[in-house]
Design brief:
single chain; 118 residues; mainly alpha
């Protein structure tokens, strides 16, 4: 088994994790920094500059992809009303006593709090 077939087999088993545009920009900045390091040989600095250009291109592509996947106002689904968590109270016998009034006030208050949070 030679080197090419091993790397091909590995790349088929392990999918690459996609990076966000900001991550590509950070990588490009690191390569830029290395490209401007005068202590490195010229051919190495040129290679780092090419890599920086490549990652800047990937950042632009990733940014366009991210913008394309954002939902538009027309594509957003309208929010459905939350189901009433007190649906079972309708099954209870309605008593005109003070306990029923307290429960009814508690239900209204809880519904208001839930609607403010949602």
């Amino acid at each position: 088994m030679n080197h090419v077939s091993i790397s091909t087999a590995l790349s088929q088993r392990h999918a690459r994790m996609p990076l966000k545009a900001e991550q590509h920009c950070h990588i490009a900045a690191a390569y830029d920094k290395a490209a401007f390091d005068i202590t490195l040989p010229t051919h190495t600095r040129a290679a780092f500059a090419r890599k920086a250009d490549w990652f800047r291109l990937l950042a632009r592509v990733a940014e366009k992809r991210e913008l394309a996947t954002l939902p538009t106002d027309a594509a957003r689904k309208p929010r459905e009303a939350a189901p009433d968590p007190f649906w079972f109270w309708g099954l209870l016998d309605r008593d005109d006593g003070p306990l029923w009034d307290s429960l009814h006030r508690a239900r209204r208050y809880a519904s208001e709090v839930i609607s403010r949070v949602a």
